[in-house]
Design a protein that fits this description.
single chain, alpha+beta, D-Maltodextrin-Binding Protein, domain 2, Dipeptide-binding Protein, domain 3, 7-stranded mixed beta sheet, globular
């Protein structure tokens, strides 16, 4: 790193007098307590990595705040009548960040898209997002990605898959230059080159990560000013969230997402409103978040209860939980009671009539009529969700069930639920793309764990057939009706207990303007300004 860069980023002392080279610069600062391990987008599998990579890279398409697919590197596209061929026409003004391996920052072409997508499915790279191209036609490891010319890219699917376009908005599908990946090798993780609104500047791992404004970024605002408005993004890595919270309140950080139980009552009322004493410092931004929090049963074919009594038990647990009370007292009103099945509010296919309302008498009736009094549930959860686990425990016990709770490390829960060792466990599902298929595929027989995400081992022939019909359907309205029917059928069998549909919760310094949000909780800083 050059001396000028160090001066710009961190400041210096000169002749005993401190100077601030950042004065006048517009710098957005936030903390990432979970840490960041890589800036290679094919490994961006969680929000901390997605947020960072989203500043550096672009994909063919993106999602707007209403979850519509909009152009990004691709200016337009066509889909064949049979839904299996997608043809993208690329912009010709998108350039990779300038770097010593690409001195002038060349224009992106269709071969770059082929190369980037082939990295995702390259088995030797073990990319966690390789599943995004599961629907792409392939033969002996060769996937149907094709550059028809410099500005035309085409991909062929093995069969129709309507959510495919939305999947291409994911960070995994970011476009990278071959020469940079080959030049840096394994070090590409810490020296990323993309086409995003910011370019990589500096990374002291575990301490500070800095991005600078990309002066050749291709997008403009409505009056023709080049985006982004910010000069830089600075990410810190304070592990203790409470310390980070105090620094945020002091104004050292400009943004904080979500809220920790240790200070939720300090910031929020029980109705989820920002407390008055902070209104002159920060603003609260809330909105739908495509995340369903739930508890899952493992459906054991050898269950001694039998099919009917086991179903009755699962239905009773769904009925006995007062979700509104849980949200008010444990989450300060943040979230929507999940009384409409697994599909969260806001996605086509969601119906308020699907699922279970709080009905204590009906739950007690099911327990009594099916001779379930004293049956023991063994609930497995993590420390972060122990308060919700205790609430579920108390609700189950009021209908005559016993409920034992075990708190485990997150890695243990993930491992044990995959191999079927947990009978009743807390889980959540955040949408990877804006389609209810992302939730409903969790319950198809073909997705049985450990290879797939069907950790409940729910299996229903009619459900699987409806899924296949939905995937072959190009009519959005009709497909949504199939989704609703699937969700209703699955919730009748009740392999899961949906607790709440989450909400995006963002606290921002009042000097920050233009930071919106979307239901995937993506951090988009292209149009943010600092006053």
């Amino acid at each position: 790193m050059g001396v000028l860069t160090l001066l710009m980023v961190f400041g210096l002392f000169s002749c005993g007098k401190r100077e601030d080279p950042n004065e006048g610069l517009s710098i957005f600062k936030y903390n990432e307590s979970a840490g960041i391990l890589t800036l290679d987008p094919i490994y961006a599998k969680d929000l901390p990595h997605i947020w960072a990579c989203n500043q550096l890279f672009s994909s063919l398409v993106a999602l707007d705040e209403e979850m519509n697919v909009v152009p990004r590197i691709a200016r337009s596209w066509e889909i064949s009548d049979d839904g299996t061929v997608y043809t993208f026409h690329l912009r010709r003004d998108v350039r990779f960040h300038a770097d010593e391996c690409i001195p002038e920052g060349r224009v992106v072409n269709a071969e770059d898209v082929c190369y980037s997508f082939n990295r995702v499915v390259d088995k030797s790279l073990n990319a966690p997002g390789s599943w995004i191209f599961a629907s792409v036609a392939h033969d002996d490891g060769h996937y149907a990605f094709q550059a028809l010319d410099d500005s035309t890219f085409q991909v062929k699917l093995s069969k129709p898959f309507p959510p495919f376009l939305g999947i291409l908005s994911m960070t995994y599908a970011s476009i990278v230059p071959k020469e940079a990946v080959e030049y840096y090798g394994d070090a590409f993780r810490s020296h990323p080159i993309g086409t995003g609104p910011f370019h990589f500047q500096y990374w002291n791992e575990g301490v500070k990560l800095v991005f600078r404004k990309n002066p050749t970024y291709f997008e403009m605002d409505s009056v023709g000013e080049r985006l982004p408005y910010l000069d830089a993004v600075s990410i810190s890595f304070l592990i203790d969230r409470q310390v980070a919270f105090l620094e945020f309140i002091k104004g050292k950080f400009d943004f904080m997402s979500g809220i920790d139980a240790r200070y939720k009552d300090e910031l929020l009322t029980y109705d989820g409103e920002l407390r008055q004493k902070y209104e002159d410092k920060i603003a609260l931004i809330t909105g739908p978040f495509l995340n369903t929090e739930y508890i899952s049963f493992f459906i054991d074919s050898n269950d001694t209860l039998g099919v009917d009594r086991s179903r009755a038990l699962r239905q009773a647990v769904n009925l006995c939980i007062d979700r509104e009370k849980m949200l008010r007292y444990l989450r300060n009103g943040i979230g929507i009671p999940a009384t409409g099945g697994m599909i969260p509010a806001g996605l086509p296919g969601h119906r308020d009539s699907i699922g279970y309302d709080y009905d204590l008498k009906e739950a007690q009736r099911l327990v009594k009529e099916n001779r379930l009094e004293g049956y023991t549930l063994n609930l497995s959860t993590t420390a972060e969700y122990a308060d919700i686990g205790k609430f579920v425990q108390s609700q189950a016990e009021q209908i005559g069930l016993k409920c034992k709770m075990e708190v485990m490390p997150p890695a243990t829960v993930r491992s044990m639920r995959s191999n079927g060792s947990l009978s009743f466990f807390r889980a959540s599902w955040v949408a990877d793309y804006p389609d209810a298929e992302n939730y409903l595929s969790l319950f198809t027989t073909s997705n049985f764990s450990p290879d797939g995400p069907n950790y409940s081992h729910y299996s229903n022939v009619k459900y699987d057939r409806l899924y296949d019909k939905a995937m072959a359907c190009s009519d959005d309205e009709l497909r949504a009706s199939y989704y609703a029917e699937m969700d209703s059928l699955m919730m009748l069998d009740a392999p899961v207990v949906p607790l709440f549909y989450d909400e995006v919760l963002r606290f921002v310094n009042l000097r920050v303007k233009g930071l919106g949000g979307n239901p995937t909780n993506l951090l988009d800083l292209r149009t943010v300004k600092m006053e």
